[in-house]
């Protein structure tokens, strides 16, 4: 029994900002169910005392000197932008009109 | 917004217990950003202090600014916190166009500093201990400008423009534990706490600490519950309260608003609210929802931060004196009356006066300027004194011009107003406009002699000992000098010349 | 076919040093081969003929002037298209980045430029390196030169097919769960994933930051060693970059030896369930190792059972966050839906249209693994499994200098065979993934052809972190023994490439 439902897939797609088509929701629900059921067995391998490893090689305290380095020019910064104006990146309105 | 929606403050305090929590963001004054070598200065031309890292280009990687870590540790130590021996960064995932990578590199489970406390004194002289839950490092977001629509606000805008100069600027977020028991003084406590944080980070030299520039920003959590109730009330988080005055007003407003709702049988919605300085009110923002699933996880591109005991102790040894000790010291050094000193503290003028004294002013005259004329102007403009366009050095200059008798009080006010208008430094203005008191006795004597000679009857009366008759001559001389003469000196000279002519 | 392109990199270096051939000739020969077989194999997404020849000319001029040149000067190379380059588009195999020109070079690219290596072009990959076949490239798959109906491995199928079809003597790959080693195995080439942090990731479009590692793709071990020496080293722009030097891989490869080496045979990866032809070649290779003086010891790594599961949680989790920046604001594609959409809708429509199915699948899986209700059970548990896998390696390396397994369970499969079955596709990486989870280095070396399909089989060696040199020693030694037995090189077995 999987915890992946179409509603959950839609919710996750919302969090991930992907406007999934309905047929993708159906397909992903099915595929993710299989994957999630399969990977869920990892909880058998561990217990509460097992430490987590987030970084494969133990390094610590890697810092940069607080010295200014060259920045991009405004032109370079905006060079890849789909839309720009007044030296800034231009985007659609943030809120729906109320 | 009708006042009818607010409960009378005294009544609200009578019925409810107030619990506040404060989140203060302090922008560090490092040379460079938190994770890249771009200049930490967002006043420049848009998108000029940016690089592949802070605009989140594919393939770029962050590297931590070591100075920012040290500054953060210093803040933690000054707040009496413990320093995390094995911490690190996490990603806080959410989409917003001012957030270049659509995640904020922040700290989650292992903030650099935790479990501290500071004592905060409110204007009445009451003291409260505020418990600090944590202080963590993170990066600021870019700046959005909303174009079109009626107000330039986010609502109704046609489109928005993004400038990432501020993206990646290092921040330390200081979070208090819930603060209980301040009662009617909760708003004052909130403001006094933020003022203290400002004093601390300024004394540490880790931030410019100017609220009006957003170097210190406060989000105020407020909840109320009927006295005796154990369960905490639903809280609201008021954002954008960016002056000490607004913090106090916003907390007071939320108490009154929530009290009105609860007393009317309503419930408080857990939400973000926005403070509107102009209306003196908060308005509802986004409700908290399950969309606030930030999916924090350890930042794999950065390695753990493990401050050594040596580093921590070195920074601890370098801490400036704590604010309470400093107050005691300054009270003694300045020699103000107790009430005068408390007024200075409550009005948030201590730093300004200290700097002004450091620039050469006498403490008492620095106090008079700030507590008097400058406070009056700030009040009439509904600003903090700090936001006025005058530096402590300029105030010291002005005070010394008066002290030395080069200008009188009336001219000083004129000079002050010119300084505030951006005309230059007091000395420059006095020089350019020829406002200096005529202290050259020669010019004065010439004018006096002329006035006495043209009014022989007055001269006669003075000689007869009718000293009040001198007033007419003094008036004429002052007029001739266009007011730029020290009246007392003129009077002295008039009596002298009348006798010798 | 020009004889030049069949030379190994080390041979070409020597010929150029001796003045027997110019860099322009070498570069042009490879560009000619690209022109000849490029359409059929589809290794490249972008070809930089002009700038490659310009670099070659510069090298020839400086060589003629008697300047001292870097070791690999004048030797052409291909670069995987998930590395940022200022003079060629970088797509990471995705539509969402089509046409994007990075305003900066990846550190590895800068190193290649400093080495004066002509960069022939950018090679194909599964979109954002998510895949084992290049079938998930938005620009169409690359083909396996041994059989054009089969996959060249993935994600680095562009690099493996380019090197195995003589379009380039060397290539750069990136390996997150086997993306260098698996393509190496199925195309009869050598692929190395160095120790995590040995090569800077700055400028590598991240798939999973804690797993990604850049490494060399070559036709033999010594060539790969030359490339690793050129691209490795500390980079202050990558916080996870190693600060210590790992020594000279070229020296290790030149002095390869098996004598007295303890080789750990991983019980969990000894071939059960693998294709018979893979098992046969692997068994023969083990015998050759023993004959050459190595001692085979069995090691037990019980947590490997969970490696794929942990990997398919950690990778999507990190990827879901790494790929959030593709939002149509600062670079890349923008899709604006009908009406008067908000930025939120523009972002969602762009990401729907710009990402392919595997990328979307993994982003959603990763979002799930990190979300508040499932964090502990999935992502959190996966990080713990990672600890267990590291412990398994620690105890295995207490008994053995290097570990060994087949690189992949099968030889190259046919296009379409696994594309609609994600779980089956994921199983290709069963032997390669543990090294990425533990950050240790691994190499795949060709050991002949499977009996049933005459397709290449690879053997994988793994070494402890920082001991990359050990891989070059054993890899070069085994390669030498095999070439001695065969009397020719692995690629000499390859059928003639039939192109129109």
Assign an overall shape of chain B: elongated
**Low-confidence segments of chain A:** none
Mean pLDDT of chain B: 90
The backbone outline of chain A, from C-alpha atoms, is flat
Q: Give me the CATH fold name of the domain at 1-41 in chain A.
A: Histone, subunit A
The appropriate CATH architecture of the domain at 1-41 in chain A is Orthogonal Bundle
Largest binding interface between chains:
A-C, 56 and 76 residues
SSE pattern of chain A, N- to C-terminal: HHHEHEE
What level of helicity do the residues of chain B show? Answer: 25-40%
| Structure summary, number of beta strands of chain A | 3
**Most strands sheet of chain A:** 2 strands, antiparallel
The radius of gyration computed from the alpha-carbon positions of chain A, rounded to a whole number of angstroms, is 22 Å
Topology:
The complex is a heterotrimer of chains A (98), B (501) and C (500).
Chain A: H1 6-15, H2 22-39, H3 42-45, E1 63-64, H4 74-78, E2 84-85, E3 88-92
Antiparallel strand pairs in A: 2-3
Chain B: H1 9-15, E1 16-27, E2 64-65, H2 66-78, E3 82-83, E4 90-93, E5 103-106, E6 113-121, E7 127-139, E8 143-147, E9 159-163, E10 170-176, H3 186-204, E11 216-226, E12 236-241, H4 244-263, E13 271-276, E14 281-287, E15 297-298, H5 309-317, H6 323-334, H7 338-346, H8 350-358, H9 363-380, H10 392-403, H11 409-420, H12 426-433, H13 441-454, H14 456-463, H15 470-480, H16 487-500
Chain C: H1 9-17, H2 23-41, E1 44-47, H3 49-64, E2 77-80, H4 107-114, E3 119-123, H5 157-164, E4 170-175, H6 181-187, E5 190-193, E6 213-218, H7 221-231, H8 249-254, E7 262-266, H9 276-291, E8 295-299, H10 307-322, H11 343-354, H12 357-370, H13 376-399, E9 402-406, H14 422-426, H15 433-438, E10 442-449, E11 456-462, H16 468-486
Parallel strand pairs in C: 2-3, 2-4, 7-8, 7-9
Antiparallel strand pairs in C: 1-3, 4-6, 5-6, 5-10, 9-11, 10-11
Helix pairs in contact in C: 2-3, 10-12, 10-13
């Amino acid at each position: 029994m999987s915890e992946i439902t179409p509603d959950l897939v839609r919710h996750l797609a919302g969090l991930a900002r992907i406007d999934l088509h309905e047929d993708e929701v159906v397909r992903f629900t099915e595929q993710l169910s299989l994957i999630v059921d399969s990977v869920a067995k990892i909880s058998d391998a561990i217990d509460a005392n097992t430490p987590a490893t987030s970084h494969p090689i133990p390094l610590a305290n890697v810092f940069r000197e607080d010295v200014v380095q060259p920045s991009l020019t405004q032109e370079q910064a905006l060079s890849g932008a789909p839309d720009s104006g007044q030296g800034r990146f231009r985007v659609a309105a943030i809120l729906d009109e109320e | 917004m009708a006042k009818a929606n607010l409960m009378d403050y005294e009544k609200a305090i009578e019925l409810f217990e107030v619990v506040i929590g404060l989140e203060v963001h302090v922008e560090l004054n490092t040379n460079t950003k938190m994770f890249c070598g771009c200049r930490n200065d967002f006043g420049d031309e848009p998108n000029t202090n940016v690089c592949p890292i802070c605009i989140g280009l594919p393939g770029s990687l962050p590297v931590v600014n070591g100075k920012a870590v040290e500054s953060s540790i210093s803040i933690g130590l000054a707040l009496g916190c413990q320093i995390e021996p094995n911490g690190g960064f996490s990603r806080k995932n959410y989409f917003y166009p001012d957030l270049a990578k659509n995640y904020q590199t922040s700290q989650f489970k292992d903030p650099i500093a935790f479990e501290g406390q500071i004592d905060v004194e409110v204007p009445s002289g009451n003291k409260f201990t505020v418990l600090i839950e944590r202080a963590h490092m993170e990066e600021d977001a870019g700046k959005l400008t909303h174009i079109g629509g009626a107000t330039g606000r986010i609502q109704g805008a046609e489109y928005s423009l993004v400038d990432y100069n501020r993206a990646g600027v290092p921040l330390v977020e200081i979070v208090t534990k819930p603060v209980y028991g301040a009662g009617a003084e909760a708003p004052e406590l909130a403001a006094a706490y933020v003022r203290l944080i400002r004093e601390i980070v300024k004394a540490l030299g880790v931030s410019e600490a100017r609220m009006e520039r957003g170097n210190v920003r406060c989000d105020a959590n407020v909840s109320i519950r009927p006295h005796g109730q154990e369960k905490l009330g639903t809280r609201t988080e008021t954002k954008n309260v960016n002056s000490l005055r607004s913090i106090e007003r916003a907390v007071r407003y939320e108490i009154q608003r929530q009290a009105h709702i609860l007393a009317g049988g309503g419930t408080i919605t857990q939400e973000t609210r926005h403070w509107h300085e102009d209306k003196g009110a908060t308005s509802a923002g986004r409700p908290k929802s399950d969309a606030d699933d930030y999916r924090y996880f350890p930042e794999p591109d950065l390695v753990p931060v493990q401050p050594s005991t040596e580093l921590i102790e070195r920074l601890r040894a370098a801490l400036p004196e704590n604010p309470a000790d400093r107050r005691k010291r300054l009270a003694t050094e300045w020699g103000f009356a107790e009430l005068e000193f408390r007024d200075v503290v409550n009005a948030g003028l201590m730093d300004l006066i200290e700097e002004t004294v450091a620039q050469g002013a006498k403490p008492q005259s620095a106090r008079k300027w700030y507590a008097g004329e400058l406070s009056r102007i700030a009040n009439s403009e509904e600003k903090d004194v700090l936001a006025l366009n005058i530096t402590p050095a300029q105030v010291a200059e002005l005070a010394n011009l008066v002290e030395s008798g080069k200008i009188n009080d009336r001219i000083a006010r004129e000079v002050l107003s010119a300084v505030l208008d951006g005309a230059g430094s007091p000395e420059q203005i006095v020089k350019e406009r020829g406002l200096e008191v005529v202290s050259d006795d020669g010019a004065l004597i010439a004018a006096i002699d002329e006035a006495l000679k043209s009014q022989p009857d007055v001269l006669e009366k003075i000689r007869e000992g009718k000293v009040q008759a001198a007033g007419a001559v003094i008036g004429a001389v002052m007029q001739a000098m266009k007011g730029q003469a020290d009246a007392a000196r003129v009077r002295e000279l008039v009596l002298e010349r009348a006798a010798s002519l | 076919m020009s004889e030049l392109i069949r030379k190994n990199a080390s041979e070409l270096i020597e010929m150029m040093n001796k003045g027997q051939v110019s860099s322009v000739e070498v570069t042009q020969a490879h560009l000619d081969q690209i022109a000849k077989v490029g359409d059929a194999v589809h290794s490249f997404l972008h070809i930089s003929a002009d700038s490659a020849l310009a670099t070659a000319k510069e090298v020839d001029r400086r060589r003629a002037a008697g300047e001292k040149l870097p070791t690999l000067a004048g030797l052409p190379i291909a670069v995987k298209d998930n590395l940022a380059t200022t003079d060629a588009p970088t797509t990471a195999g995705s539509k969402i980045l089509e046409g994007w020109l990075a305003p900066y070079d990846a550190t590895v690219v800068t190193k290649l430029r400093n080495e004066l290596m002509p960069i022939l072009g950018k090679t194909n990959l599964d979109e954002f390196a998510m895949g084992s076949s290049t079938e998930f490239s938005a620009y169409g798959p690359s083909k396996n030169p041994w059989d054009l109906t089969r996959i060249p491995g993935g994600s680095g199928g562009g690099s493996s097919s380019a090197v195995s079809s003589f379009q380039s003597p060397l290539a750069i790959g990136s390996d997150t769960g086997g993306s260098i080693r698996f393509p190496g195995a199925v195309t009869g080439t050598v692929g190395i994933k160095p120790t995590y942090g040995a090569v800077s990731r700055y400028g590598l479009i991240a798939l999973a930051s804690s797993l990604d590692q850049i490494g060399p793709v070559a036709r033999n071990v010594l060539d790969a060693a030359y490339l690793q020496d050129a691209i490795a080293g500390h980079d202050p722009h990558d916080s996870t970059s190693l600060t210590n030097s790992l020594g000279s891989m070229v020296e290790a490869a030149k002095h390869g030896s098996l004598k007295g080496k303890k080789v750990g045979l991983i019980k969990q990866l000894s071939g059960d369930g693998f294709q018979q032809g893979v098992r046969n070649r692997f068994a023969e290779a083990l015998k050759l190792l023993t004959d050459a003086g190595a001692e085979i010891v069995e090691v037990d790594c019980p947590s490997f059972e969970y490696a794929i599961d942990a990997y398919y949680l950690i990778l999507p989790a990190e990827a879901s966050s790494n790929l959030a920046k593709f939002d149509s604001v600062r670079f890349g594609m923008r899709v604006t839906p009908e009406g008067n959409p908000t930025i939120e809708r523009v972002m969602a429509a762009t990401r729907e249209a710009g990402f392919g199915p595997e990328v979307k699948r993994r982003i959603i899986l990763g979002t799930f693994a990190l979300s508040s209700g499932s964090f502990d059970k999935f992502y959190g548990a996966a990080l713990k499994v990672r600890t267990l896998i590291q412990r398994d390696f620690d105890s295995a390396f207490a008994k053995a200098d290097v570990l060994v397994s087949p690189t992949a369970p099968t030889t190259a499969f046919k296009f379409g065979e696994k594309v609609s079955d994600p779980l089956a596709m994921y199983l290709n990486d069963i032997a390669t993934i543990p090294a990425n989870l533990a950050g240790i280095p691994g190499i795949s070396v060709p050991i002949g052809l499977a009996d049933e399909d005459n397709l290449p089989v690879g053997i994988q060696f793994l070494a402890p972190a920082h001991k990359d040199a050990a891989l070059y020693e054993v890899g070069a030694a085994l390669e030498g023994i095999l070439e001695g037995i065969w009397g020719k090189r692995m690629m000499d077995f390859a059928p003639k490439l039939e192109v129109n």
